Amino acid sequence: MVGQFIKVKCSKCNNEQNIFNKASTVIKCVVCNEILAEPTGGKIKLKADIISNL
Ligand SMILES: [Zn+2]
């Protein structure tokens, strides 16, 4: 199984950030520290809006 990068937009500060859709740790916005996604044991659960699949 191969994950992929997706581009998301922070709902708080509108920062756009590329994240991996599989992660074992919480992914936070690099600008404001808002949580963008949480791990669920496989795919991440997104808290931010997806802009595009890369
Ligand atoms: Zn942010």
Outline the structure in words.
- With 54 residues, the chain is mostly beta strands.
- The chain has a domain at 22-48.
- Helices cover 0% and strands 46% of the residues.
- The protein has strands spanning 5-9, 16-20, 27-28, 35-39, 44-46, 49-53.
- The chain has a three-stranded antiparallel beta sheet with strand order 2-1-6, with no helix packed on it. The protein has a three-stranded antiparallel beta sheet with strand order 3-4-5, with no helix packed on it.
- It is globular, with a radius of gyration of 10 Å.
- The mean pLDDT is 92.
- The protein binds zinc ion (ZN).
- Zinc ion (ZN) binds at residues 10, 12-13, 15, 29, 31-32, 34.
Q: Average pLDDT across residues?
A: 92
How are the strands of the biggest sheet laid out side by side?
Answer: 2-1-6
Molecular shape? globular
Question: What structural category characterises the helix and strand content?
Answer: mainly beta
User: How do the SSEs run, as a string of H and E?
Assistant: EEEEEE
Instruction: Tally the beta strands.
Output: 6
Query: What proportion of the residues is helical, as a percent range?
Result: under 10%
Radius of gyration: 10 Å
How many angstroms separate the termini? 17 Å
Please mark out the parts with pLDDT under 50 across 5 or more consecutive residues, or reply none: none
